[in-house]
Design brief:
two-stranded parallel ribbon, disordered N terminus
């Protein structure tokens, strides 16, 4: 997502959640979107096969997860089978395994646990279960976003401006029930990693933060970068600075 010029994107994003009635499940871990898509492709295929979870199958899958000799593919299959079984005992196995998963199937374990939880809650509750996943994950019914704010001019922030950023960001984001996980103030830009309730208007919230800060000298650009896919790398930030300030070499 971009900044103010992409306001309609933010609006559609907010509206898509504000009109939903149900219980939101937010994937808390950071799982690459491509891997999530791959997981659901295999999950859908397994659900179509409608495999019955026998006692022998259950014990085999459970053993595969604890067997150091089992391949990653075997573990992935076991995780999928347990996830689509709609059984409480399978959920308990996934819950335990996801606390200490092996590196090569960690993301798969997180996805399987989430799918199992949603399927069980769908059966136990009349409330609609809504799954939300992004590359950056979330917590509870909040999504994690990364935002990059640039200085309005090619001039390092002054000490008082840094203090304004710390104070106003903390105040306005808390007011909207957001949680700041990381706020990094560099010479020419500010990085923000935060959690925001899914129904909150993210564009209006961040616009308000900029407006409040700019009452003390108009030092933040109104154009910002916001994404829930991944944090920007140092190279991507450098590109944003180059685009903003032209030939000037940005200080870090």
């Amino acid at each position: 997502m971009g900044g103010r010029e992409k306001g309609d994107v933010f609006e559609r994003f907010r509206e898509s959640f504000s009109k939903m009635d149900g219980h939101f499940h937010v994937l808390e871990q950071r799982v690459p979107v491509e891997l999530q898509m791959e997981y659901f492709k295999h999950s859908e295929r397994m659900r179509r096969d409608n495999i019955v979870m026998t006692e022998d199958n259950f014990n085999t899958y459970k053993q595969d997860l604890s067997d150091s000799k089992a391949t990653a593919e075997m573990k992935k299959y076991a995780l999928l089978a347990l996830a689509v079984s709609h059984e409480v005992r399978a959920y308990r196995v996934l819950e335990e395994y996801a606390q200490h998963p092996e590196p090569d199937v960690t993301n798969w374990a997180y996805m399987a646990l989430m799918e199992s939880r949603i399927s069980l809650e769908s059966e136990l509750s009349e409330k609609k279960q809504i799954y939300i996943s992004t590359g950056l994950g979330g917590k509870g019914e909040k999504l994690r976003f990364y935002a990059l704010f640039l200085a309005s001019e090619y001039k390092p922030f002054e000490t008082y401006q840094r203090q304004v950023v710390e104070r106003e960001f903390a105040y306005y984001l808390a007011k909207e029930n957001c949680e700041i996980e990381r706020l990094t103030i560099c010479d020419l830009y500010v990085e923000l990693l935060f959690l925001i309730p899914v129904r909150t208007d993210i564009k209006a919230t961040l616009d308000n933060v900029i407006t409040e800060c700019n009452q003390y000298g108009n030092f933040l650009s109104g154009i910002l970068t916001v994404t829930n896919v991944k944090e920007l790398s140092a190279e991507e930030i450098a590109e944003a600075l180059e685009k903003k300030y032209g030939g000037n070499k940005a200080a870090h």
